[in-house]
Amino acid sequence: MTARSTAAAGILFWIALGGTGAGCGEAAESSTQSVARVGTTTLTAAQVRAHVPNGLSLDDSATAARRYVDQWVREQILVAQAEAALPPEAMAFEDEIKAYRNALLLHAFKERYVNERMDSEVSEEEALAFYEANEASFMLTDYAVRVLFINAPETAVLDDIREPFAALDSTGMIDIERWCVENGAIYGLDGSTWWTLSAFTKEVPMNFYRTASQISSRRLVDFEAEGRHYLVRFLEHALKDDTAPFSAVRNDVTEMILHRRKQQLLLAMEEQLVVKAWAEGLVEVTEPAP
Asked: How many whole angstroms separate alpha carbon 90 and alpha carbon 76?
């Protein structure tokens, strides 16, 4: 691609379709300027700009613009071939297009309606009441644990860390975390996080042979495996097939409450609009003849 890199890649594709400007000595291109044509179908600069993400460098914007133009040209060629090859009855998409447009309109309308009217705050009291009324929805299919762990290189010296970690509380957290960073250790010191046991063992290859007894112990677990050194402390646990602790599913509870609010709000809106339309005589339904 010579000839001065094809005139500096089309003067960076017309300064990323923002106009010729800067040293080109030409008037700025109109947003209706055609940048590509396939048959009688044209693509304008404004249409291309609408598909170029904001915040890109000039080079990246020009690349994105050219990529979109190339994709558009290929699509139009294929569409033209399809229109020429298919019989008219195979191209009767009016009902599907209308249904798709209606679905897009309804989705946009409902999202805006909900965003403008729905309270997205869920109090602790409301969440707990929902959780207690729907405990069957929060049954565990795996053991769950709140746990602290350190996954350190085998070369790390743990003599000074074992005792502080075994007695770790919020006052010692900063020192423990600093030690982990300085020694290149992977760690989980957020004691509020709940893990399923299957997820936890992907981080810490601990063997479980008496699972319920092991995760109920609050003593320090200290072992080596796969060339790493591990320190583990279980803080809280829940057994498989039991109800998950409230703190473990608090986010799920919130999402379920908000989903229910959304559905109730939309149903009320729909009912109100339907009643109003009937009352104003906008609806007419004719029974089919027998």
From this structure: 18
The closest alpha carbon to 17, from 28, 6, 3, belongs to 28
Reading the block at residue 114, the tokens are: 């909900």
Exposure letters 64-88 (e unless 16+ CB within 10 A, then b): bbbebbeebeeebeeeeeeeeeeee
Contact (CB, 8 A) for 223 and 206: yes
What are the structure tokens assigned to 191, written together?
């004691």
Q: Are β-strands 144-153 and 194-196 bridged in parallel, bridged antiparallel, or unpaired?
A: antiparallel
Token output for 105 = 């309109």
- The C-alpha angle 83, 86, 88, rounded to 5 degrees, equals 90
Side-chain-side CA neighbours of 281 within 13 Å: the count stands at 0
Q: Which pLDDT tens digit goes with each residue over 151-193? A: 999 899 998 888 889 887 666 778 899 999 999 999 999 888 9
The pair of three-digit structure tokens given for residue 13, joined into one six-digit string? 């594709």
Q: Report CA torsion sign: 161, 166, 171, 176.
A: positive
Q: How far apart are CA 142 and CA 131, in angstroms?
A: 19
Model-level pTM?
0.70
Beta strands at 194-196 and 186-188: parallel, antiparallel or unpaired: unpaired
